[in-house]
Amino acid sequence: MPRPRVGPLLGTVLAVLAALLLVPPAVGALGGGGGDGTQLRGLRMLVPNAPGGGYDVTARSAAKAMEDAGLTGSVEVFNLPGAGGTVGLGRTVNEAGDDRLVMSMGLGVVGSVYSNDSPATLAETTPVARLTQETEIVVVPGDSPYRDLDDLLAAWRADPGRTPVGGGSSPGGPDHLAPMLMAEGAGLDPRTVNFVSYDGGGELLAAVLGGKVAFGVSGLGEFADQIASGDLRVLAVTAGERVAGVDAPTLRESGIDVEFTNWRGVVAPPGLDPEGVAELERAFADLRATPEWRAVLERNGWQDAYLPGPEFGRFLAEEDARVERVLTGLGLT
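User: That's the sequence. What structure does it adopt?
Assistant: Structure tokens below.
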């Protein structure tokens, strides 16, 4: 019996199908990343404050480093500011089960939960990784009459109400806790301090340069460019040791017995399955080992403070208790 003839079009289709069956799937073609070596696809990073702040810089720097290192596909970074980061926290908690959403956060969000009576808490989130820590800095405009910390302290002690200090976090956040501890160390009653809260480093920078506050307290990495250009001058660092590249003493060198560092990390929504959690943890653990991320740390003056998910979770619980103790001790709760 003669074999049936195959038309040219049908023959082409069959040849293409056969070729596809012989070719292995492309890297990442099967969706999410994980232990099979594929990229983590569809990752979104929520920034809970305005553009230009520390969480924003951290998220965008991490996203670019992950993309450049080939750990992920394109990463979407978006801002959802409000209530010191607790609006973003509420959104994260409400996205239960979404293992492609993470939120950039840090000590400021811990304090904001208290100062804003947030219904959502960090205990409800899935800790993914602590990434960095950095010193806080005391800054003034380049043309400020306060040439050093002694000048500033003299004015602050004489009239704290008329020497406002700005911070890029809500009460309870690092930019609030640092000047309050600094005031206490300088012999001032923290309750007399005129603290002005701004939603992130971008708004704080405008306030400092515009003379709306006498001085600002923020993370070093947020103002590195303005310090280098001379638009801002650093009067002191809150770390226990001087910081390379920053011409400023520590608070202790200036007679104030205070040491303070800020930190930042990443959390995810609750209710993730173990595989989803493992993929997120692995992506950020791999990020830490890349030259791209090491360059980010150096450029921003950040220290590597990596903690994996479970250890980060225990650290978060300890920080929550510490912030509550400090706020209560300062009479600010």
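The chain has a mean pLDDT of 89.
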